[in-house]
């Protein structure tokens, strides 16, 4: 039986990378639709502030993304997560190791980026197929057409790159209408894979401080998320830990 840990009201699946692959693959065999999110400190801050987002995530399989969530697990539960399951690294790993050949629909990011990412992740000769692509800048009037395109594509997997919380809220609201067995919120994956945004050097990623690299490149846009947001996150985790420690233990039988 799999283990879960709850951080700031969000339930995380506790597993190593290849266990995560097997967990997703099982959804295709069980024929049960699976909604997947990768949650980092910023995700949990948003979930703490928005009840609708927290409610949506309760219907997702959630994997741990980043050092902040790992530290929160250590503070609250006394243990780190087995591995860092950030979407940018995990999704390519999943596509290379899954037992299933998949039809994949790429939804999100700026015009042209989804197509570029699709061609990198599903190159000629791949056992997977590109079911379709669409940018993420469509209005409410086009939403039904986008859903129809996904449904008609018979996609097995829909990758949604719209950022938190929009991508998870979109998946939660529209998953059934897509008829896809698995949908994942993948954040900036398309931007990184397509080359639109550079990733940090390997040694920075190995040190688990990629957020510092991103902050240095986009300080105006990301300072609120990382500088203010990280302090908010650590404060929330500390308060949650203190509340758990102060809570009376359940009485034992006599």
Automatic annotation (TrEMBL):
InterPro entries xrefs: WecG_TagA_CpsF
Keywords per UniProt: Glycosyltransferase, Transferase
Protein name: Glycosyl transferase, WecB/TagA/CpsF family
Transferase among keywords: yes
UniProt KW Glycosyltransferase keyword: yes
One Gene Ontology MF term: hexosyltransferase activity
Membrane-crossing residue ranges in chain numbering: none
